[in-house]
Amino acid sequence: MSETALAVRHLDATRGTFHLRDVGFELPTGFVMGFVGPNGAGKTTTIRCLLGMIRPDAGEVEVLGRRLPADPDLHQDIGVVLDHAFFVDDWRLPDVERALRPFYGRWDSARYRSLLEDFHLDPGHKVKELSRGQSMKLMIAVALSHGARLLILDEPTSGLDPLARDDLVGILGDFLTDDGHSVLFSTHITTDLERIADYVTFIRDGRVVASSTKDELLDGYRLVRGGPDDLLEPELPLAGTRRTPAGVEALVRTVDLAELRGDLVVEAPTLDQLVVKLGGDR
């Protein structure tokens, strides 16, 4: 088993007028990486490169120890969950199994039926009759029924209610009880990652802004608030500065705190605050 579930090195790719530039990150086996950034930042384009759907202009991608392009049987070990079901609308849930089972050598029919029951999915329903949350659970049931070692989730919680998002976190927790399982979770809803992410990669405008463990990323910044005349030093690196007549708020690198002057309030940021501030900084 490879020690690295995913490795992206110096990746450049073009999708229409959008460009990924020098994207790089690594996800060790057995962990969850949150892949975050604003809409249009490059998350889906990167994931399409990971899945072999886009051929990069430069750089390399390694998935489960195998450099792309790899043998087609690599897809046996990868489960993909998108923000919408990619099955035929008129299929009933047993039809989904009949259509996909021939493509997976380790397909487990008993596991599939058990997951449908666990997720309270009625086999008699058609794909088009499922809610967004049910569609997400169906895709996860498919991924877990063919023995996937790596789950790649591309904005699966967009538009879901808090209960459905909480269900997903629980499902991923069960999946990760096996040390050989890993998850890349792309989202712009960072609260979904607070409980489960071990690593975070933040992308903006096609470039990686930061990639580290979640704790290292959060420890590297502080949220600072002060009066309207504070934080005026032009030489000090600030991110996401917001000024009002009542005061100022900005994200500051922890190593720069000693350079600050004034009666300031310093707090540890949440992951959501950090992404909002870094995402708004240009």
- Low-confidence stretches are none
Give me the CATH architecture of the largest domain, please: 3-Layer(aba) Sandwich
The Cα radius of gyration reads 21 Å
Question: Mean pLDDT, nearest integer?
Answer: 89
CATH topology category name of the largest domain: Rossmann fold
At the first level of CATH, what is the class of the largest domain?
Alpha Beta
Distance between the termini: 41 Å
Topology (SSEs and partners):
Elements: E1 4-15, E2 18-28, E3 32-36, H1 43-50, E4 58-63, E5 66-67, E6 78-81, H2 93-100, H3 109-118, H4 132-145, E7 150-154, H5 162-175, E8 182-187, E9 199-204, E10 207-213, H6 214-219, E11 221-226, E12 238-244, E13 247-253, E14 265-267, H7 271-280
Parallel strand pairs: 3-8, 3-9, 6-7, 7-8
Antiparallel strand pairs: 1-2, 1-4, 4-5, 9-10, 11-13, 11-14, 12-13
Helix pairs in contact: 3-4, 4-5
Kindly describe this structure.
The structure is a single chain. This protein has helices at 43-50, 93-100, 109-118, 132-145, 162-175, 214-219, 271-280, and strands at 4-15, 18-28, 32-36, 58-63, 66-67, 78-81, 150-154, 182-187, 199-204, 207-213, 221-226, 238-244, 247-253, 265-267. The protein has seven helices and 14 strands. The mean pLDDT is 89. It has 282 residues and is α/β, with parallel strands linked by helices. β7 (150-154), α5 (162-175) and β8 (182-187) form a beta-alpha-beta unit. It has two domains: 4-216, P-loop containing nucleotide triphosphate hydrolases (Rossmann fold, 3-Layer(aba) Sandwich), CATH 3.40.50.300; 220-280, no CATH class. α3 packs antiparallel against α4 (132-145) and α4 (132-145) runs parallel beside α5.
